[in-house]
Specification:
The chain is of the alpha/beta class and 645 residues long. It folds into four domains: 161 residues, Translation Initiation Factor IF3, CATH 3.30.110.200; 49 residues, no CATH class; 153 residues, Reverse transcriptase/Diguanylate cyclase domain (Alpha-Beta Plaits, 2-Layer Sandwich), CATH 3.30.70; 240 residues, TIM Barrel, CATH 3.20.20.450. The chain contains 20 helices and 19 strands. An eight-stranded mixed barrel has the order 10-11-13-14-15-16-17-18, surrounded by four helices. Helix 5 packs antiparallel against helix 19. The model has no long low-confidence stretch (mean pLDDT 82). It comes from Amphritea balenae. One of its GO terms (cellular component) is membrane. Keywords: Membrane, Transmembrane, Transmembrane helix. One of its GO terms (molecular function) is cyclic-guanylate-specific phosphodiesterase activity. This is EAL domain-containing protein.
Amino acid sequence: MSIVNQLMAAVLAVLIGLVSGTVYLMSDSSKAMLLNQLESHGQDTATHLGLYLAPFMSDKDTAAIETTVNAIFDSGFYQQIRVIDAENKPLFIKTSNAQVNDKVPDWFIDLVQITPPEMTREVTNQWQKAGSIFVQSRAGYAYEQLWRGTKQTLIWFVVLSLLSMFFISLLMKYILSPLKGVEEQALALSQQKYIEQSRIPGTRELKQVVLAMNMMVRRVRTMFDEQAKNIEEIRRAAYQDELTGLANQRATKTRLNERIDYRNDFGNGSLIHLHITNLQQLNTELGMEKANNFIRAAASQLELLSKKTDDPVLGRITGSDFILLSSLTDPDQLQREMNTVIRNLNDFYHQLSHKPAEKPACIGATPYIESYASEQLLANARLAADQAANNATPVHCDEIGSAERQESWHQHVSDKISNGDIFLQAQPVKSVADQSDILHSEVYARILNQSQLPSMAGEFISVVKQLNLMSALDKKVLQSVFKKLEQAYDSPICVNLSNDSLKDLSFCNWLIEIAATLPQPQQLCIEINETSVLNNMERITAFREQLRQLGIKFGVDNFGINPAGFSYLYTLHPDYIKVDGSLVRELDSSAEDRFFVRSLVTAAHSLDIQAFAEHVERDSQLDSLRQLEIDGSQGWIHGQPEALN
């Protein structure tokens, strides 16, 4: 029972006690007054009868006495009239039952006992005693009057009590409304949400409670913010180049290896290599500060170019070398973009040195195809940059391949998606504490190539993006998953949605409508890449709330590598995160990675969010994850992806 209801019950109990006492006092007072009235009424009647009947009583004329008494008795106000002579012998007695009106309830008659007094009057005639007259008034009159007064009192009490309770409840709710806010704050804190009350009550006790609660919320939020800042400092120190703010050599190569050698989901693209031709000479000519400004400008130009790719790999691999894995594949567009980068750097060099640029930087690009390993791709890009340095122009693009073959492959992919000719594979996420416990299974889309062999996502995903078919592909995958869930699949199924689908409001509405019809919508999990989350925060937050209402779990994939940090977890509050595989690949041998991942897991657990690790391949990695108290693991250690049965 709420405190308002308890207070209302207490007030009602007090009111009932007050009215009970009031009714008792009023009844007792009314009863005494009515008895006085009955006594006076009986005395007056006895006196009047004595004056009238005196001569008849002396003559013992019973007929006249009977006639007179009957005339008075028939008025209904008397219970008994007795007329006796001087020798105390009855001359006439008239009695009736003590009848009470049917409107007076029996319980009231039993509760209130009224015995009317019998009044007497001695009668004399010619100075001699003629006898006595005894008159007892009827009790029913007293009961009727007393019940009428009591009933009216009770009716008015009920009416006034209801009105009073209504207004008191409004007043109580207004006075105690800050406690409702405190309750909401406590519930929000249990869900790792921080809400402060803006309205401070005037009541001293409630004011202190609200101020104390607001202070606690601020302190908890400050602790989380400080934790996030500390982890971000760790990330910068371990994985970020101090001068440019880009990923450092180790982080860049690890991410490139992760995307190309393991995930293989980038699709066709180009690896761009930017080289500052003579960094030592640049330091000598411009000085350390200006040379650093030129390096920052080079990093900034590549960062601008990286925005044309949804999830690029960008970083500084040596003091004078930068790489960018871009989704650009059109040779003409790629040539224009690289010419723009070099032109801007030449202009900046001219501003710093006040003399014409002499090829301060060169840039090369090599196409990325699925058969290349990361080391081979890096070597090809470095050769392209070297060739640019030896050319007359500081830009060089390697040949990308046959346009006819690309067009044929584009048509093949488009046809497969349009016809829904895809099949799904699944890989489980297992509990680290209990390897037999499957938390969910993540699905991967596959299509057959022209040779009727399964194609990995990296072989067709870039084509799907170029053809703007990502939403269509996601819809086909979800339709297949919905069919499986209607058949009561063993474990929850996770689908990773693309950024294009999340930007499509009609797609999101379609997903919610269909998921609402599932017999067990809680068997569906939706995952979104961390970069997509940060790029569409408002839309994703609303979408996540719709999923929560249906009981669908929501996770953030590739967590922990975005330089924007992870303070968004407080707002979004997903059900789980998947630590990016680039942070897990060397977890068993890198103290830095273990420390950073431990910090991420601690931050997630402080918000009651589960933490999973992806791309786990070795038992030593799994042992390290157990020590870090991570909740689940995914990777080839649990087997390669298999057909979704």
